[in-house]
Design brief:
This protein is mainly α. It has 20 helices and no strands.
């Protein structure tokens, strides 16, 4: 479809890119020191924090990768999402309060900072920084892949490389200029767009497919999809959806792009409202995954949409061919928002790992963190762009690897270590290294796994087991009084 036949989509995309560029200019004046750059001056309310956390968590992985994954494997992909009902509360009860209180008693700006405070081990914090850096490059690459798909569709750009380059340039500008000040306020804008678009697209997608009954009938009677598409375990071995549920339900406790937002909250007492804001907004946003995940296969089965050459084209093709201009424009802006809000969080995390966390683990300190943080942001983004260019599979699968890397490396050391005094530095270090290395080895298929077994689920299980076993073997150790007070609060 000639893109000029849908000018509202182009206008929406251009206006959105202009808006986040403007936020970058505005935030540049308000980013005066490293504290502003890394944690937005710790001046956020709970609603802003909750929406920013949701926007950082729900990215191109959800808005583009989710419908694409459903198109390939069926409704078993939704096992990634069913944990949303309890993960917001789990985050609040196990790690959010203690991370924020740590930032009250120490200069804690990053997750490796928190690991260093809890365990007093530079090896543990350095290992955490390496895990963050590896996961960041992969997850940021996921966003750039999704960005290329959407920019090609929305602006009619033929070259995927050019589409990614354009979006990357905008991300680099506002993330290097304003750091987390820019990131948080673009997250608020972006989260609001995501909520509006998710509701609108969900209902329109169901209507376009003829309603739930017609959609189910079309898919189940289709040779391409069949009844198996709609069954809980779909076309996949049972281990895969169960692995999705475990990784995304428990691995969420180690996601630094979400946990990092808790350091920015102005008043720790407001954390009790976080599960409501975060869980509610996540639940609404997932409507776009469900709506498009059902409607696009139904439209293909009904002959109204040709079979997709690439599953990840599901969202943009539906918006371009079926949605009215106003809704399509809003949705394209929301998808760009989902991608860029997460991308900004990861550029900041990767830069912090290079400039703050790794030097500290080596006993050194970068003198001008603000300047070098901006320089490192460029380097991390370019590394992710290369990863995106070389990767050739579903966006959701790269996102699952990155999510799993964070979860396997960090969730046990944080979720258990901040709540159980017996966990030692040796146990935390062994757990972080096990999760990071094993996940890479399994993803590279150097060790075979049973059909359907997710490498990330195996790595996360092994990481928990190592933490508990080494803690039992080594026994407890002394914890600093202020950190102990945080753990007992």
């Amino acid at each position: 479809m000639p893109i000029l036949d849908r000018p509202l989509i182009v206008v929406a995309a251009v206006l959105y890119l202009a808006a986040v560029t403007g936020i970058g200019v505005w935030s540049l004046r308000r980013t005066r020191n490293a504290r502003d750059f890394w944690v937005a001056g710790q001046a956020l309310g709970v609603v802003v924090t909750g929406i920013a956390t949701m926007a950082a968590a729900f990215s191109g992985f959800v808005f583009v990768g989710g419908p694409g994954l459903t198109y390939r494997i069926g409704l078993s992909s939704l096992f990634i999402n069913v944990s949303i009902g309890f993960t917001a509360g789990l985050l609040g009860w196990t790690v959010a309060k203690r991370l924020r209180l740590l930032a009250e008693v120490r200069d804690v700006y990053t997750i490796p900072d928190a690991v260093l405070c809890r365990y007093r081990s530079r090896l543990a914090s350095g290992s955490a920084a390496v895990a963050v850096l590896i996961g960041t490059v992969g997850y940021l690459g996921t966003q750039l892949l999704a960005l290329g798909v959407v920019m090609k569709a929305a602006l009619g750009i033929e070259s995927a490389l050019l589409a990614v380059a354009l979006g990357t340039a905008v991300i680099l500008f506002y993330s290097t200029a304003g750091g987390m000040v820019a990131g948080v306020w673009t997250d608020v804008l972006q989260g609001s767009l995501m909520l509006l678009a998710a509701v609108g697209v969900f209902f329109y997608a169901l209507d376009a497919g003829g309603g739930f009954g017609e959609i189910a009938s079309s898919i189940s009677s289709s040779e391409r999809f069949g009844r198996q598409f709609l069954e809980p375990f779909g076309k996949t071995p049972v281990l895969m959806p169960l692995g999705f549920f475990f990784v995304f339900g428990i691995g969420v406790l180690g996601q630094p792009h979400m946990l990092h937002k808790f350091f920015m909250l102005r008043d720790p007492r407001r954390l009790r409202w976080l599960p409501l804001v975060l869980g509610g907004s996540q639940g609404v946003c997932l409507l776009i995954w469900l709506g498009l995940g059902l409607a696009v296969p139904a439209l293909v089965a009904q002959g109204k949409l040709p079979p997709l050459a690439k599953p990840d084209d599901a969202a943009p093709l539906f918006l371009l061919h079926f949605a009215p201009d106003l809704l399509a424009g809003l949705a394209v802006a929301a998808i760009l928002a989902a991608i860029m809000s997460t991308a900004d969080s990861f550029t900041n995390l990767g830069a912090a790992a290079l400039v703050r966390d790794l030097p500290k683990a080596l006993g050194r300190q970068v003198r001008n963190e603000l300047l070098w943080g901006r320089i490192a942001t460029v380097g991390v983004t370019l590394a992710a762009a290369v990863t995106a260019y070389l990767y050739d599979d579903l966006i959701a699968l790269l996102g699952t690897f990155s999510f799993g890397t964070f979860g396997a490396a960090l969730a046990p050391a944080l979720a258990v270590g901040l709540n159980w005094k017996r966990v030692t530095a040796a146990a935390a270090t062994a757990s972080i290294l096990t999760g990071t290395v094993l996940n890479l080895v399994l993803e590279l298929k150097l060790i075979p796994l049973p059909p359907g077994a997710l490498p990330t689920a195996v790595s996360l299980s092994a990481s928990f087991a190592v933490l508990l076993l080494v803690s039992w073997w080594t026994g407890g150790e002394e914890i600093d009084e202020d950190v102990l007070a945080v753990m007992e609060a």
